[in-house]
Structure to design on (292 residues):
């Protein structure tokens, strides 16, 4: 059987973006495509899109650079998938997506692609970016509400920071970290009060308030709360893994241990971590000292 132009493109390792678009079109072909891919929708694919974005962030966090091309490819495929579904529905195609982001980047960087001066601080450029975005929202008929356009699908901590940043730009913000810490103590007291004297709904609400203030504290301290929590998750995973290792050496599993034993091993893992960090810091200091 002679190969079609589509077959040749699909199997061409140098086919680039046209190859990927053709693969996606073939997967969604109602007559010859993959049954699973054909039955998907924007709603069913969206969770995979979020998952792939998180996997890109994970690779970057771990600095696993050899894995990054594959993970970026997975994320790009998500964009191609949504664009193909839109084309199938007669909404728009991939070219529209590309044109939209290219036009947006040109419009939002007049100091690069226009006549504005590049002689600006990063803070000035950020302010200009937000001003242009606000103008775009107004032009799109979305109104001038301060918090419009902060995506609902963002991780909750990230969305909290973005909402707070928007409010801060119009002056709705505490002047310093001290006021945030005071509010944090207030919210902790309210959570304790809810737990002791109120029902589950009130506890749920107060716990959310506490997390929201924690996000605000991260913002005031110029920390990324998602990154901080990912680091804490990684630390917990590493230390609990050491507990499992030491229990295994004793012929035991966590289910056959108890809290007192595991807590003691946790403290051992914590001390091991601190010693390792001190050794790394000492080595870095020694290298710096040798260079001076």
């Amino acid at each position: 059987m002679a190969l079609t132009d589509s077959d040749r493109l699909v199997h061409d390792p140098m086919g680039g973006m046209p190859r990927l678009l053709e693969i996606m079109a073939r997967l969604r072909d109602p007559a010859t495509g993959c049954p699973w891919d054909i039955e998907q929708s924007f709603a069913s694919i969206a969770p995979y899109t979020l998952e792939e974005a998180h996997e890109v962030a994970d690779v970057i966090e771990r600095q696993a650079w050899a894995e990054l091309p594959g993970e970026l490819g997975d994320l790009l495929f998500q964009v191609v998938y949504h664009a193909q579904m839109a084309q199938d529905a007669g909404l728009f195609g991939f070219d529209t997506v590309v044109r939209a982001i290219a036009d947006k980047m040109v419009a939002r960087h007049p100091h690069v692609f226009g006549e504005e001066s590049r002689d600006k601080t990063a803070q000035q450029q950020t302010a200009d970016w937000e001003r242009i975005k606000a103008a775009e929202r107004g032009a799109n008929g979305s109104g001038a509400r301060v918090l419009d356009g902060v995506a609902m699908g963002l991780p909750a901590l990230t969305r909290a920071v973005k909402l707070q940043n928007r409010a801060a730009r119009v002056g709705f913000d505490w002047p310093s970290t001290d006021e945030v810490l005071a509010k944090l103590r207030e919210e902790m007291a309210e959570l304790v009060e809810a737990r002791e004297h109120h029902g589950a709904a009130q506890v749920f609400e107060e716990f959310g308030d506490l997390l929201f203030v924690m996000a605000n504290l991260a913002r005031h301290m110029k920390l990324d709360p998602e990154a901080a929590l990912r680091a804490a998750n990684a630390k917990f995973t590493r230390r609990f893994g050491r507990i499992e290792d030491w229990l295994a050496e004793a012929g035991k599993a966590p289910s056959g241990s108890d809290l007192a034993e595991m807590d003691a091993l946790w403290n051992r893992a914590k001390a091991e971590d601190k010693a390792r960090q001190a050794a790394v810091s000492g080595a870095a200091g020694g290298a710096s000292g040798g260079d001076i």
